[in-house]
Amino acid sequence: MSRVDGAPAELVRDALDDGDPFPGTGGFAGRIDGRLVRDVLGRRPVFSEPGDPNTWSFDPTDLADPRPVPAGAVRGSNGDELQWSLPDPDPASHDDAQAAVTDVVGAALDDVVPSNLAVAFSGGVDSALVATGVPDAPLFVAGFDGAHDVSAAREAARLMGRDLRVVELTHGDLERAIPEVAGATGRTNPMDVAIALPLHLVAERARNAGFDRLAVGQGADELFGGYAKVVEPASDRRVEADTVRGARRETVLSLPDQLERDVLAIRAAGVEPVAPLLHDHVVEAALRLPAELIATGDERKVALRRAASGLVPDPVREADKKAVQYGTYVSRELDRLARRAGFKRRMENHVGRYVESLLE
Q1: Contact of 184 with 264, CB cutoff 8 Å
Q2: Which of 98, 111, 133, 237 has its CA at 20 to 30 Å from residue 214's CA atom?
Q3: Which UniProt keywords apply (predicted)?
Q4: CA torsion 72→75→78→81, rounded to 10°?
Q5: CA separation (Å) from 36 to 28, 82, 281?
Q6: How far, in Å, CA of 11 to CA of 37, rounded?
Q7: Angle at 73 between CA 68 and CA 78, to 5 degrees
């Protein structure tokens, strides 16, 4: 019996037969014809017990020793076999590449089904674009008092004429949610926890408000060049590549690990994530961008910002955004909580040890 999350089984069978990594979905995972499959970007996770693909689940907490199926792989009785690899196409011409991104982003936003949907909103161009696809959906932002994301989201929502609901975080929220997030994702390192917590808490608030789907802007930074390390990679030790396109490819290849964490953190709140900027057609167009439409010394996510012209107010379209763990102050407050609990900065991995203490 086949059970696939994210796409019809027949479409996945066709992709298996012809090796197409982008068959026109937003990602898929599951069991088909006796094998486990996961799409090339790992947009939907699936797990099994070691050496036993017949004991599997979309939720790792269902298993004693969950092992994720690698992105692009098929897992059968003989182990894992890579079925799809991330393409590395030559760049298209400047005008053609921009036109393609503008077209596919618009189409992806038009295809978002609005029923029972809220939007995770930080006030940046990614979440603002997603919000334009569902003009009647409420926007939710999380953060501690004075946090950058809250201020940016308030101003962006005002400019867009949208309803914004602020999830005002407290230390109690973090202490309560850390075991939930760590249990759902299987991760306790401070970076993963700090990223997952605001996503989980926003999803939780959306669920309590009656929504069972949460639209997110995940993937935009990786696909379109949102990281500083992509701008001058030859002199940046954080990447191995020495070209903008090469560094961008490295960030795209990091998506499966990140998306597994984010999807599980959101689902643990009883909400299903919706990521329109990760649709196959958007990914394909992004991979064909020339360097000057990815990042320059003056601008990052160049093509995406241009695609947002006329859809998103210019101050929002042009604004820089902090990473979620910093823009919400979650990383800062985790450090504060750890020190208050006796885990001082002079101790190795003091925040990680604090997280572990809450699980005990």
Answers
A1: yes
A2: 98
A3: ATP-binding, Nucleotide-binding
A4: 0
A5: 11, 12, 24
A6: 12
A7: 85
Identify the band that residue 238 occupies on the pLDDT scale cut at 50, 70 and 90: very high
Q: Give the pLDDT confidence of 45-66 residue by residue, as tens digits.
A: 999 999 999 999 999 999 999 9
Phi, psi of 180, rounded to the nearest 5 degrees = -65, -45
Query: In the structure encoding, which two tokens stand for residue 288, read together?
Result: 């064909």
Query: What is the spatial distance between Cα 87 and Cα 22, in angstroms, rounded to a whole number?
Result: 10
Q: Which pairs count as long-range contacts for 229-234, CB under 8 Å and 24+ apart, including other chains?
A: 230/294, 230/295, 230/300, 231/295, 231/296, 231/297, 231/300, 232/297
Q: What is the mean pLDDT of residues 139-147?
A: 97
Give pLDDT, residue 320: 86
Task: Indicate if the pLDDT at residue 1 is higher than 80.
Answer: no
Q: In what order do the strands lie in the sheet with 29-32?
A: 3-5, 29-32, 35-38, 73-76, 79-82
Does domain 94-330 correspond to CATH entry 3.60.20.30?
no
pLDDT value, residue 321: 85
Q: What is the pTM of this model?
A: 0.96
Q: Which regions of the chain carry the CATH code 3.40.50.620?
A: 94-330
Q: How far apart are CA 69 and CA 67, in angstroms?
A: 7
